[in-house]
Amino acid sequence: MLLAGTVYFASTNRAAERAVAVRPAAEVVEEACEEYLALDDHRYVDAALLHANLTDADPRNDPFVVSVQAEGDFLRGHIPGALNIPWETAFRGYSLEKLPADRPLVVYCEDGHNSSRIASLLNVMGYDAYVLRWGLCSWTRDLEVLPGYPGPWADRHDYPLETAGGANGTVRTGAVRAQRGICGVDDEPAPESEDPAVREREALRKRVDSYLHSDVPPGITADELYGRIMGDDGSEDAGDAGPGRPFVLSLQGNAAFSSGHIPGSERMSFRHLLDVDSLGRLPDDGRAIVVVSATGQLAAQAAAILSINGYDAMPLKGGMSAWTRENGPAQPIFDPDLHSHAFPMEKA
Questions:
Q1: Which of 244, 242, 186 is nearest to 211 (CA)?
Q2: What would the 3-class secondary structure string for 296-327 be?
Q3: CATH code for position 32
């Protein structure tokens, strides 16, 4: 939790507080995810706040900073003192051994999308992980460090919006838990250990690592989504569930959703993502789920959580900020002029 005034990161080790009875992996994963969602804390930290923490000459409030970029990208330039753990290996045992369990983590990547996935999964594992909001795009404008700056928000579109309604899915409570294994994360026998808590943690780690190495894409662009939900003439495809049409799940708030959302999308709450009523509205026909939020980062968290629970879910990169140029108090966007800084970088 971030406190006002002098900024400190408070940390608790939730993993150590979990029940010790060994249960099926699906049950372990679901409980861990629900525990994180119940915090109702999206766990983002702004670049200015992180910079203030790291430069205030008080090491007691310094988080442990982790870059999940590829090694080559990290070497181009990184936040001073950061440790590089590429996202593909973040949940291998040798990587987790490098992370303190009793100290808050701040995770970043180029634009906040991959780091949102990894931080949410670290939180599910019991760490106290925060995401650097908008990643390095908010920390630096150095094109040598970020050749693609400003990331997925460089090419914003004027794709169509609905301003009322939204699909109302039928609750299918009998099918809610039926999709285990879609992402290649079928239950496996719990690892051998005398300690039930160790066995459950390892089962959770394996589920997360399996998801990161599955064939589920880490995200979809606005161009790709538009092509999959709109007809060749620019009109919305007929029918709600064509074979190539994904299910669009919006995490926008009520006001933002009412002011404009992707046609055919359904609004759900991040906190209640795994509630029976929410899961009952998700497709049970194998269609992919595209999760949408304001700038794509909360959607990346939600997609990761749905994926380790057996759903084929991916975030819309850049979120509504990439889908439309319309913005206002109800439709927040990433604005490089307002949200980017020129904080120092270490370079190899």
A1: 186
A2: CHHHHHHHHHHHHCCCCEEEECCHHHHHCCCC
A3: 3.40.250.10
**Domain encompassing residue 147:** 14-152
Task: Kindly state whether residue 198 falls inside one of the protein's structural domains.
Answer: no
Q: Is residue 133 part of a domain?
A: yes
* Residue 172 domain flag: no
Of 145, 148, 138, give the one whose Cα is nearest residue 334: 138
Q: Where are the beta strands (DSSP E) in 62-138?
A: 64-67, 83-84, 105-108, 129-132
Q: pTM of the prediction?
A: 0.85
pLDDT in tens, the chain (348 residues): 343 334 455 555 655 555 445 688 899 999 999 999 999 788 999 999 999 999 999 998 899 999 999 999 999 999 999 999 999 999 999 999 999 999 999 999 999 999 999 999 999 999 999 999 999 999 999 999 998 888 888 777 888 888 866 544 333 333 334 344 434 445 555 556 668 888 899 999 999 999 999 998 999 999 999 999 875 545 554 344 456 789 999 999 888 898 889 999 999 999 999 999 999 999 988 899 999 999 999 999 999 999 999 999 999 999 999 998 876 655 667 888 888 888 888 987
Q: Is residue 31 part of a domain?
A: yes
- Residue 45: enclosing H or E segment and its boundaries? strand 44-45
Tally the domains of the chain: 1
